[in-house]
Amino acid sequence: MQEKHQCLNKLAKLILTTYLCCLPLLACNNQQPVSQENQTTPPKPQVTPTPTPLLLKSSLPQDKNYLLDNQIWGQPGDKQNLLKAIDYSLSYLQTPAAKTAYQNYIIPEITQVKVEKSLKRFRELVVNSPNAQELQAAVNKEFAFYKSIGSDNQGTILFTGYYKPIYLASRKPTAEYRYPIYRLPDDFQTWSKPHPTRLELEGADALQATKGKLKGLELFWLKSRMDAFIAQVQGSAVLKFSDGTTTTINYAGNTDHDYVSLGKELIKDGKLQQEGITLEKVINYLEKNPQSQNIYLPRNPRFIFFKDTKNAPTSGSLGVPIIPERSIATDKSLMPPGALAIIHSSFPFINQGKIEQRLVSRYVLDQDTGGAIKSPGRVDYYIGVGKEAGDRAGSIVNKGELYYLLLRE
Q1: What is the distance between the alpha carbons of residues 265 and 8, in angstroms, rounded to a whole number?
Q2: How many CA atoms lie within 13 A of 167 on its CB side?
Q3: How far is it, in rounded angstroms, from Cα 364 to Cα 343?
Q4: pLDDT for the residue 52
Q5: If phi over 0 gives left and psi between -120 and 50 gives alpha, with beta otherwise, what is residue 72?
């Protein structure tokens, strides 16, 4: 899935990216007949575009598949994880950043105060409801549902997944550990735009950074070039050192370039098939064809910088920890930060060593964003830490629906 975290100051641009489509301009007919040789195209009147709302009041389909989150009572610790995610959103909503984000939010009825009240009431219901049926009955009675219009204005959401990988690393460069990850430059705000591309920063082989702007910014070194690249795509990683110690790295900033998917590039060039594409297939192809890494990795010009978070929990763009399978990433210039949501789609699970897709309807908190997560039709679902989480996250390319929940007036 893609790089996950961007600076919170982009939240202030909410008002700039609201309107997604407009009605076609209507041409009027010329009332005076004219000869064909003198006929000209009549002028088109200026028609004010009609905006399409991002979120439409809706209701959940009355379908057994929408019985939400029965696993809250069936899986140990799952209720605690949901409550923890709610509490993290509530802590975010007390910050100045949240006040700024909601000050000019493009849906007037969605306010910081209302999102906070909704979370507090939902938390009470989760704590006090004895089962999924009673929780959902209370939610249906007390909450209004706002369905995202999706990228097609029909409510279709493309879900992908992301995770936190675990990699072997070194604090010093060696013959075995050659590929650096970098901290954010102290003078980054003064870099002129357009920023240097990935190719310009680290060279085609990712080993030329000592000749340019990245010199001296190395944080740690990894064994594999793909490890260093995927850490950038995921926006975080756990690093394990030979002395048995560990640390964590997290997103600190990025160059001002659009994210380019290597999977799409490989499909475009006929190297992989669209059907059944997964992150694992992309990585396997590039590792089995190492010469192709010099060609394809530079095609993603965006470069990610990290900070050493010293084993702190993974945090999202809101500055609060994200919880496996309870946190999602959306376009924060469009969607309400920290809000309670419902996702409905097929998601992968491991069953006897094999991945199988199961239909899931569950409560989540909107707590993150990503470089590839643009438009109201994209959601990235945080799966967790490690290889199994990575296998599952890399298998999510599914369509579904997204709803936000707010207390009724």
Answers
A1: 29
A2: 28
A3: 7
A4: 57
A5: alpha
Distance CA 378, CA 287 (A): 28
Number of other CB atoms surrounding residue 117 within 10 Å:
14
Write out the DSSP string of 349-392.
EEETTEEEEEEEEEEEEEEE--TT--STTEEEEEEEESHHHHHH
Regions in the chain scoring below 70 on pLDDT:
1-52, 61-67
Q: State residue 2's pLDDT score.
A: 43
Q: What span, in angstroms and rounded, lies between the C-alpha atoms of 166 and 164?
A: 7
Give SS3 for 22.
Answer: coil
Which DSSP helix (H) or strand (E) runs through 158? strand 157-164
Whole-angstrom Cα distance, residue 317 to residue 252?
A: 10
> What pLDDT is recorded for position 29?
34
Tokens of 45: 């009147």
333, amino acid identity: S
**Per the structure block, which two tokens stand in for 237?**
């990683």
Give the H or E element holding residue 238: strand 236-240
Question: Three-class SS of residue 40?
Answer: coil
Tell me the C-alpha distance between 9 and 205, whole Å. 33
**Three-state SS for 330?**
coil
Phi, psi of 303, deg, nearest 5: -125, 135
Q: Which two tokens stand for residue 343?
A: 């996702």
- Residue among 106, 263, 253, 80 at smallest CA distance from 183: 253
Enter the tokens of residue 342. Answer: 């419902």
Tokens encoding 281: 């297939």
Beta carbons of 344 and 401 less than 8 angstroms apart: yes
Place of tokens 């500055």: 319
Kindly report whether the global pTM for this prediction surpasses the value 0.85.
no
Q: What is the pLDDT of residue 65?
A: 53
Cβ contacts of 358 within 8 Å, gap of 6 or more: 346, 347, 348, 349
- DSSP state, 312? P
d(CA 300, CA 408): 44
Give yes or no for a contact between 11 and 171, defined as CB atoms under 8 angstroms apart: no
DSSP state of 183: B
Cα–Cα distance between 116 and 98 in angstroms, integer? 11
* Angle subtended by helix axes 112-128 and 96-103, to nearest 10: 120
Close Cβ partners of 167 (under 8 Å, ≥ 6 residues apart) = 222, 223, 224, 227, 231, 237, 238, 239, 240
The pLDDT of residue 211 is: 75
